[in-house]
Each structure stands twice: as C-alpha cells, then as structure tokens.
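Pipeline run #58 for the internal structure catalog. This entry was flagged by the ingest filter as a single-chain record with no existing model, so it goes straight to prediction. Upstream metadata was stripped on purpose; only the residue string is passed forward. Reviewer on rotation: M.T. Logging verbosity set to normal.
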Amino acid sequence: MKRIAMITLGVWLLLMGGPVQAQDATLAQALQHYYRGDYEGAVDVLKSITAQDPENAAAYYYLGYTYQEMGNYVAARMAFKKTYEINPDFLPSVPNRGR
C-alpha cells in the first residue's frame, strides 16, 4: 500500500505545475531513486530538499520510509516525527481503493 501511495504522489508531482514545480520535480527525483532501490540516492535528494525547505513535511515523510527500507529505524522514526511536528494533519496521498 505504501508503494501505491508513493507512486500516486510521484505521478501527481510530475503532472503538477506552478511555482513549486522545481521542488516537486526534486521530490519526484528522490522517489525515482527509491523505486530503483537506490535508497542512498533517495536519502541524498531528500536531505537536500529538507536543507532548502525545513518545513517540507512530505520530504521528511518519504525520508522516513526510505530509512525504514534501509533498516535504519531510529532515523526513520525521527523523520516521521519531524513530519508530524511540521504538519500534525499530514496525510500522504492514498488512491481510492474502489470501495
């Protein structure tokens, strides 16, 4: 289910335009690294995003999932915690499951 949510977000980011398009493209680049199994590459891009925009809850959220895949559960927990400190109501995009 998390991969479906990440795929949905990645597609959404690629289709969106507007003033945050460059940042969204960078997040899409991080997700491409993630899908290829290049977790180190994803971490590098996500850390770059959070350095430039420390209030980017989505970047911290996907950083948490990436750390989780790497088995770094302490770092994952810290990233997830930061996500919800920034935005307590943060919810990743989840596709309609056709209920």
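catalog note: DSSP finds five helices and no strands in the chain.
catalog note: Helices lie at 2-15, 21-35, 39-52, 57-70, 73-86.
status: ready for reviewer M.T.
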